[in-house]
Amino acid sequence: MYQEKIISPPSGYLTFAISIALLVASILCFVSEIFLWGGILLAVDIFLIFPGFLIINPNQSMVLTLFGKYLGTVKADGFFWVNPLTAKRRLSLKANNLNGQQLKVNDKLGNPIEIAAVVVWKVNETAKAVFSVENYMQYVNIQSEAAVRHLANIFPYDHAEGEETSITLKDGAEKVSELLENELNERLSRAGIEVLEARISHLAYAPEIASAMLQRQQATAVIAARKLIVEGAVGMVEMALEKLSQKGIVELDEERKAAMVSNLLVVLCGDRHVQPVVNTGTLYN
């Protein structure tokens, strides 16, 4: 596997001055009708000087090869001159966004889900990006999709009934993103790619089970709400009986207490407005 080698070619300004001087000299030779020397100087300038000029913009690099041999990579921005026979390939070192497409996969529990991820990456080692893989951008796309599929297969979408899983795709966003970033860095290191950030951008149940899962979530929410209401109602009934006993407002036997508790629980736990009923008799008539 190729290792990146950073090189610093000479500045191109001196060579540019020599090129201008050769161009002026060739023009003077043509004017003086010294066509042979004029042609030689012009050919040297066009074919041996001009092709060697190299302009590197900020956050760009140039991979140089000579007759199939890797010479090195120029990462410094500026104006340079290199061997005119070298082959040059320009690579951007800027950060790239990969907005992955929505994938339909099965989670750990076998439920079909839709998942997508956003990956921020950049080229870190140009030699690996050029020589180790055929097309490093296509390599990033395919390996990112494979990593997202693998991540979805090893974690459940949500907690199963009666089970508390440590990490889920829905609730463990930070941990899942960290694992996805680490796996992508491992997969893409062969191509000299560094992953700066990876996060889940879309997560949902597949349409065929979305309705059923929504009903399950609604039922879970209703049960949790009812549980909270009952706990609060029992506390309020207990407090009411204690206050009545402390202040001696009324003396209640066990049967009247049971009736009062029953009525209060109906009032507090019911989901509809209560219609009051005035009892003009006694509890026993």
TrEMBL record:
Keywords: Membrane, Transmembrane, Transmembrane helix. The keyword Membrane applies. InterPro entries: Band_7, Band_7/SPFH_dom_sf. It is a single-pass membrane protein. It is found in: Membrane. The chain crosses the membrane at residues 12-28, 34-56. This is SPFH domain-containing protein. It comes from Pedobacter jeongneungensis.
